[in-house]
Amino acid sequence: MKRCLTDHSVLARMSTSGTNLRLHNGVEMPLVGFGTFQGSYECDQNVVVKATKEAIDAGYRHIDTAQVYNTETGVGQAIREKIDEGKVTRAELFVTTKLWSHAHRRCDVIPALKKSLQTMGLDYVDLFLVHWPVALKGMEDALEAGLTRAIGISNFNERQIARVLKNCKVKPMNQQIESNPYFNNNQLIQFCQSHGITVTAFSPLGKPGRTWQNNPDDPYVATDKVLISIGEKYGKTPQQIALKFQVQRGVAIIPKSNTPSRIRGNRELFDFTLTEEEMKQIEGLDRNFRILWINFFRPSREYPFTS
User: Annotated catalytic, 234?
Assistant: First the structure.
């Protein structure tokens, strides 16, 4: 794959406002979000509640969930409890959820979103994403109905995005895709940003706890000499450097953790700035190392990934 080097300062000026990312409809999304996927579709809701409450206490205002993650119940409970405590208001939070593949027909989209809202105990979400490449008509209906403040896509490739842009009434505001130092996805990120679509990176630390892909030569953020060296300069961990790389180039992040110290540490990104040379060093770590292939979708004609 052709490696694309980026003028990060230009992209950041184009898309960010302080610690927020401005969507093209004017809605502002916090750059640093809290991911809630537990690595399994069967999860302990008490763990989700505890971690999400810890994240809100730590200052996170962007919470990412999805129907298929089976975390909407815990996320909603945590949000309601923190609102009841007076820690936050609903308006201060940015909640993202996603439409799964069982509800791709236009007539099924709003009922699916309403079910997610009921599960979370919310009146609306701030961003509603198509979790897998399909048409967007039903998503536009949800936006018009006021059930979400913004709509977007996830895991779409350039061809699929181009098709959406050609046929949509409302352009997607955000695309959520895999991106980390070893799979920086620069070309797709630049394509999205050039069309006014902001980008959120999932697995920005490369899923260090992965069990399905664990070869001796696989790269890991925590032991990467380049990231460690840069981190020593700023008094930061290699994980924080990997996250800062995304934020500094105008890409939102949703790192997941259940550990309070890591939850807090993943937000401590705005008291230093990487040099252009350091950004290029991190870009140089790219090896097209995709982690999440979502193989059960390979038979689909809309499967977006190429090996």
Answer: no
| SS3 category, 238 | helix
Model confidence over 42-73: pLDDT tens digits? 789 999 999 999 999 999 999 999 998 999 99
Q: Name the token pair of 258.
A: 């259940």
pLDDT in tens, 115-155: 999 999 999 999 999 978 755 568 899 999 999 999 999 99
One-letter amino acid identity for 167? N
User: 41, 69, 124, 220: which is the annotated catalytic residue?
Assistant: 69
On whether the CB atoms of residues 131 and 101 are closer than 8 A, the answer is yes
Cβ atoms of 25 and 150 within 8 Å: the answer is yes
Distance CA 274, CA 247 (A): 11
- Tokens in use for 186? 């620069």
Distances (CA, A) of 211 to 214, 218, 234, 291: 6, 12, 31, 11
The C-alpha angle 170, 293, 225, rounded to 5 degrees, equals 105
* Tokens, residue 306: 């190429």
Asked if 31 contacts 59 with a C-beta cutoff of 8 angstroms, the reply is: no
Q: Which of 62, 67, 70 is nearest to 35 (CA)?
A: 62
Distance CA 103, CA 109 (A): 6
Nearest to 297 by CA among 69, 183, 131: 131
Instruction: Order the strands of the 62-64 sheet from edge to edge.
Output: 34-35, 62-64, 94-99, 127-130, 151-154, 174-178, 198-202, 252-253
Only one residue has tokens 């699916």, namely: 112
Sign of CA dihedral 96, 202, 30, 149: negative
